[in-house]
Amino acid sequence: MNAIELHNVTRRFGHLTALRGVTLSIPEGQTFALFGPNGAGKSTLLRIIATLGRPSSGTVRIRDIDVRESPEQVRAHIGLISHQTLLYDDLTARENLTFYAKMYGLKNISHDVDEALSTVGLLDRYNDRVRGFSRGMKQRLAIARATLHQPEILLLDEPFTGLDTAARSLLANMIYNLRSKGRTILLVTHDLAQGLALANHFGILRLGELIYKSTTEAITETELRTLYENRVGNVAQSS
Questions:
Q1: pLDDT at residue 84, as a whole number
Q2: Would you state the pLDDT for residue 236?
Q3: Residue 94 to residues 52, 74, 103, 105, 137: CA-CA distances in angstroms?
């Protein structure tokens, strides 16, 4: 079964076309890195998969569930880490995770929340309001939020941005651990080296089109960088 399946997905915003007929299948247990310059449509694609946006045309299925027809059912299978932490600043770390645990319908909430806080190194800050957390700490808590319900699919949108060295190492180790457990991971990143190290397949998105996809098995970082520069060319790196 494919964990993620997109067929001819297009997304328009007025006169702007952010995605142009993207077709992509990611089998269960695969880690797929999606590269591309700013404005290529990477975050738009991820938001559609995460049920936070809708395609203008085309179909998206998550574990054979149509995203348009059953978004709530899809959300039970996915965890999202993005630029937005999706945390509540006025709540404590534990209150945030307890809120999400109830949303996910978890049974042993206290145990699961404490275990998640411990995993990201924030158990000793459980009673502190998120408002006082550093960017790195908020991102760590966001990792705990996204993995609290043990999702089969993890969606990562530039997840290493703003993380300190310890948190970057923590997240990389968690990704490796989830891979070993057969989870499916879609990683959107500008960091070619990081994506190559974490993923077993990759694709390049340019001006809303998926212009290349392959395995990472037989390609070096230098070869990937050359391929990327040749394929992306002089596409503007702004917005």
A1: 84
A2: 43
A3: 25, 25, 14, 16, 13
Number of domains present in the structure of the chain: 1
CA count, 13 A, side-chain hemisphere, 1: 11
Share the mean pLDDT of the chain.
92
Residue 77 lies in a domain: yes
Residue 237 lies in a domain: no
Single-letter amino acid code for the residue at 49: I
Output the CA–CA distances (angstroms, integers) from residue 33 to 39, 110, 156, 222, in the order listed: 17, 34, 9, 16
Retrieve residue 3's tokens.
């964990």
Q: What is the pTM of this model?
A: 0.89
Strand 2-13 relative to strand 16-27, pairing: antiparallel
- Give residue 201's identity as a one-letter amino acid code: H
C-alpha span between 87 and 64 (Å, rounded): 29
Taking the C-alpha atoms of residue 106 and residue 171, their distance in angstroms, rounded to an integer, is: 23
Share of the chain above pLDDT 70, in %: 97
The phi, psi pair for 4, rounded to 5°, reads: -130, 130
CATH number at residue 129: 3.40.50.300
